[in-house]
Design goal:
Helix 2 packs parallel to helix 3 and helix 3 packs parallel to helix 4 (109-121). The protein is globular, with a radius of gyration of 18 Å. It has a six-stranded parallel sheet, sandwiched between helices. With 240 residues, it is of the alpha/beta class. The protein has helices spanning 19-24, 30-51, 70-93, 109-121, 138-153, 160-164, 212-224, 233-239; strands at residues 11-15, 55-62, 96-101, 128-136, 177-180, 199-202. It is built from eight helices and six strands. The structure holds farnesyl diphosphate. Farnesyl diphosphate binds next to helix 1, helix 2, strand 2 and helix 3.
Length: 240
Amino acid sequence: MQRLHTGVPRHVAIIMDGNGRWATARHLPRMAGHNRGMESVRAVLETCGRRGIEYLTLFAFSSENWHRPADEVSTLMRLFVSALQREVVKLVENDVRLRVVGERNTLDPELRRLIAEAEERTAANTRLQLTLCVSYGGRWDIVQAARAAAREQGIEALDEASLERHLALAFAPEPDLLIRTGGEQRISNFLLWQCAYAELYFTHALWPDFSAAAFDEALAWYAQRERRFGRTSQQLAANS
Ligand code: FPP
């Protein structure tokens, strides 16, 4: 859905990259970078609350991340479990609603149980909609949505609107701003459909170094962007 540019994004999506490099540069195990990355998650959450951002979507674990060394995968999964156990009270206190999207059936039953519990405990919260993408891939999302839409109404009637209703983030407006830390300039199978018109912000900061001030810089950059959605600058000026 397209809308006027107000300067503050309603929906920010983030690819949190660079944890491993942050740790390696300090001769620490990669997991130390992921742990430290949790502090950046907190800082970004607080900034969203302060700035009135309504939706924050974080790429916590991609479909492709399953190919990492088994010990890194299992320690990351343990980090998700402990984060859910520890942080859910703070989410409730701060009126944050948590959703986890992705291929749930690939996750450990205990993690699935904690996710369901955290989603239920925060279901009535409205200040900020926090979505963690875990075992998520943009292509998976499009395929599962297309299947569901085709089942519902038949393949011939499938169109953009009917597919969108079945995407994992159907409850949210499309991201206005996609941030990727860690220096790479690619989307890496994140919200492929939903980011068609997102402003893309790439920074060399590694995720554990992405502070509230760094996030504010990204927001200031976003506020300067002209969002045309295929129209011309003149058309936008005439409508404003
Ligand atoms: C990418 O860095 C980061 C990840 C695959 C994991 C991200 C997870 C967190 C920051 C923890 C957040 C958890 C919750 C519950 C929100 P990388 O390992 O690819 O870094 P590299 O490119 O330097 O190797």
